[in-house]
Amino acid sequence: MAVTRTFSIIKPDATRRNLTGAVTKKLEEAGLRVVASKRIHMTREQAEGFYAVHKDRPFFGELVEFMISEPVVVQVLEGEDAVKRNRDIMGATNPAEAEEGTIRKEYALSIGENSVHGSDSDENAKTEIAFFFDEDEIVG
Ligand code: DAT
Ligand code: MG
């Protein structure tokens, strides 16, 4: 497996409860290195653009409102097979279905307020990283 990058968001339900460090610790313990990180308050335009793939889903409005409700921490993570490694430590979208020890099992409040985002493919990781970071902000 090659060393690759993925994109992560620590979502408003987690930043609000002061869980930025706790979530990052889980990521690091899973073998992922934080090579870029910034705390931002997403604009509506950013949230709608980032989640455009979900624009026809019934939860889209709720998702956008949630993502702009409080600051988030956007991160680039690097490691062996980073996309899968991150998805594994995140756990299932619905915390009720997430495995023991995963971030969502431990911290998520609901299927909507589920503490973290993670890219689902190498291709999407590249697009999502470029959506929030300039290349010179990433220090591997
Ligand atoms: P994931 O974040 O695990 O990749 P996804 O891409 O299917 O999940 O959905 C993106 C986000 O949208 C998800 O993290 C939370 C929200 N969401 C998904 N399904 C939902 C639902 N049935 N009700 C409310 N929010 C939902
Ligand atoms: Mg997704």
TrEMBL record:
Example GO BP: CTP biosynthetic process
Keywords: ATP-binding, Cytoplasm, Kinase, Magnesium, Metal-binding, Nucleotide metabolism, Nucleotide-binding, Phosphoprotein, Transferase
Pfam families: NDK
Family annotation (HAMAP family): NDP_kinase (MF_00451)
Main localization (coarse): cytoplasm
Span of domain Nucleoside diphosphate kinase-like: 3-140
Family to which the UniProt record says this protein belongs: Belongs to the NDK family.
Function text: Major role in the synthesis of nucleoside triphosphates other than ATP. The ATP gamma phosphate is transferred to the NDP beta phosphate via a ping-pong mechanism, using a phosphorylated active-site intermediate.
Catalytically driven reaction(s): a 2'-deoxyribonucleoside 5'-diphosphate + ATP = a 2'-deoxyribonucleoside 5'-triphosphate + ADP; a ribonucleoside 5'-diphosphate + ATP = a ribonucleoside 5'-triphosphate + ADP
Documented EC number(s): 2.7.4.6
Localization: Cytoplasm
InterPro entries tied to this protein: NDK-like_dom, NDK-like_dom_sf, Nucleoside_diP_kinase
Species the sequence originates in: Sphingomicrobium lutaoense
One GO cellular component term: cytoplasm
Gene: ndk
Protein name per the record: Nucleoside diphosphate kinase
Reported cofactor(s): Mg(2+)
The protein's assembly and partners: Homotetramer.
Any one GO molecular-function label of the UniProt entry: ATP binding
Amino acids binding ATP: 11, 59, 87, 93, 104, 114
CDD domains to which the protein is assigned, alphabetical: NDPk_I
Active site: 117 (pros-phosphohistidine intermediate)
